[in-house]
């Protein structure tokens, strides 16, 4: 195979690292959403994480989801409206685990690839983590607007790979 043909089938870096994030997500035992994240400095992979219960604690498949309902006030066309959100509080999010198990020095100036757009809590944590870029695939509409504003305010590049196709063996259909 000549060099031109090899380059035509070779994955770009965004696809390569997002593929890895999706493969990492297959370790999750969350029945609602499998999320994977990877930390990258330049072209070097520094860490991976997925969502799940704390180590040594029963996960959602074993003990069931711990759903907490939150209410949030949003302005829609100048009118305040209440929105209900349900979140599983048994699970530590992939981004949180990534931050727990990587060093601050490694995160400075790095990029996080995550299968799903970070929620508000994870976005806050990423904003203080030293990363300069967050790349995600699936949107998370519940927190999207305020997360985008936060990333812009912090000067963190925030990109959606909306044309990305996850590896077939790692794909999970999720409801928003």
Automatic annotation (TrEMBL):
Answer whether the UniProt record assigns the keyword Hydrolase to this protein. Answer: yes
* PROSITE patterns, sorted: CYT_DCMP_DEAMINASES_1, CYT_DCMP_DEAMINASES_2
Q: Which residues form the active site?
A: 95
Read off the InterPro entries from this record.
Answer: APOBEC/CMP_deaminase_Zn-bd (IPR016192), CMP_dCMP_dom (IPR002125), Cytidine_deaminase-like (IPR016193), dCMP_deaminase (IPR016473), dCMP_deaminase-rel (IPR015517), Deoxycytidylate_deaminase_dom (IPR035105)
The record's similarity note reads: Belongs to the cytidine and deoxycytidylate deaminase family.
Q: Where does Zn(2+) bind?
A: 93, 119, 122
Which organism does this sequence originate in? Paenibacillus endophyticus
PANTHER family, from UniProt? Answer: DEOXYCYTIDYLATE DEAMINASE, DEOXYCYTIDYLATE DEAMINASE-RELATED
- Coiled-coil stretches, from where to where? none
Highest taxon of source: Bacteria
Q: For the CMP/dCMP-type deaminase domain, which residue ranges apply? A: 12-158
Q: State the organism's lineage.
A: Bacteria, Bacillati, Bacillota, Bacilli, Bacillales
Record's keyword annotation contains Cell wall biogenesis/degradation: no
Q: What is its EC number?
A: 3.5.4.12
Q: Which Pfam families match?
A: dCMP_cyt_deam_1
Obligatory cofactor(s): Zn(2+)
Its top-level enzyme class, in one word, is hydrolase
Q: Name one GO biological process term.
A: pyrimidine nucleotide metabolic process
Keyword list, A-Z = Hydrolase, Metal-binding, Zinc
Q: What is this protein called?
A: dCMP deaminase
Question: What would you give as a GO molecular function for this chain, any one?
Answer: zinc ion binding
Pull one GO CC term from this UniProt entry.
Answer: cytoplasm
């Amino acid at each position: 195979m000549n060099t031109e043909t090899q380059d035509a089938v070779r994955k770009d870096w965004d696809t390569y690292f997002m593929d890895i994030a999706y493969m990492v997500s297959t370790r999750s035992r969350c029945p609602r959403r499998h999320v994977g994240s990877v930390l990258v400095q330049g072209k070097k992979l520094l860490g991976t994480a997925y969502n799940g219960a704390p180590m040594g604690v029963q996960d959602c498949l074993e003990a069931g989801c711990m759903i907490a309902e939150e209410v949030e006030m949003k302005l829609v066309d100048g009118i305040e409206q209440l929105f209900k959100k349900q979140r599983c509080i048994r699970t530590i999010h992939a981004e949180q685990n990534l931050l727990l198990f990587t060093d601050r020095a490694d995160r400075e100036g790095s990029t996080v690839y995550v299968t799903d757009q970070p929620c508000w809590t994870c976005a806050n944590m990423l904003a203080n983590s030293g990363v300069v870029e967050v790349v995600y695939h699936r949107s998370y509409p519940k927190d999207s607007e305020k997360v985008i504003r936060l990333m812009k305010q912090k000067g963190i590049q925030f990109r959606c790979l909306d044309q990305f196709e996850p590896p077939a063996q790692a794909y999970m259909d999720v409801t928003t």
